[in-house]
Amino acid sequence: MTSLLYGDNDFELKKALKKIIKDFDNEYSVEKIDGDSIGANDLPDLLSGISLFSSKRLIIMYDVSTNKEVWEKLADYIADSQVSSDLVIVETAPDKRTRTFKTLQKQSLAHEYKKLNEAEAKKWLLDQAKAIKTEISPILADKIIERAGTDQWKLHYGLQKLALLGDINEQKIIENIEASPQANVFALIDASLHRSPEKVHRLVGLASVSEDPYFFFGLLSSQIFQLVTLASSEKGPSEVASDLGVHPYPLQKLSGLAKQVNKSQMQKIANIIAECDDKLKRSGAEPWLLIEQALIKLANR
User: Fold this and answer.
1) Contact 114, 9 (CB under 8 A)
2) Which end of the chain is more exposed for a tag (fewer CB within 10 A), N or C?
């Protein structure tokens, strides 16, 4: 058996890998290898399937695609069926243009694990809650995802924590689930458009403790762009999301705010964010101060 497990969904990928290891009947013949620690000359021995301790051998190679010599040579062994060991290759983002990837894909040996979108995460969360006999409603599932995002590790540990607290409600979710950067950005936009500079100041202070200011501003400007696009369009959130090539869930959240913004305000909002972007790139000022000043301007518009 040869397989490639890859993708940005670390939760599902590790779950699949764990099952492969569990199903392998001799744990003492499992070998885990970093791709950059071997050379092409090591492949014959590794892939031969011969072991002093067992008749079966499971080789797990991590990030071998970064080792170009070995990665390219693997294609020859796979194409010619020269792999006697059970081989699992674990990657995050292998180059799909390479011969090795194409060989694995052609033989249906490549398995991709993608991050869940909001709808998929909600279904997964509800299924997980049911599996551990914890009752949450679809509305509360939305609240959990609103704060934690769609990362399954965060959702998994968040659900485990909530399950210990008995009946789950919105207040328990707020108190026990750490807000994601996306949730913090939305809260700041909401506070700015509701003209609450005091709340903006408090939320920026909280965000600055744990977030990178440049990454955070990237999320902020992205949501502002979506907000302005939605406010200036006669289309609904789903149609605008399709036009922008993004998932409709964030736009559905922004739709209520979009109704509060007229055309002159849209231009002013866009100008304030563009000015902040320019200052972040050109000035040496403290980035969180610039972000707060921009959001305070939005609140006082």
Assistant:
1) yes
2) N
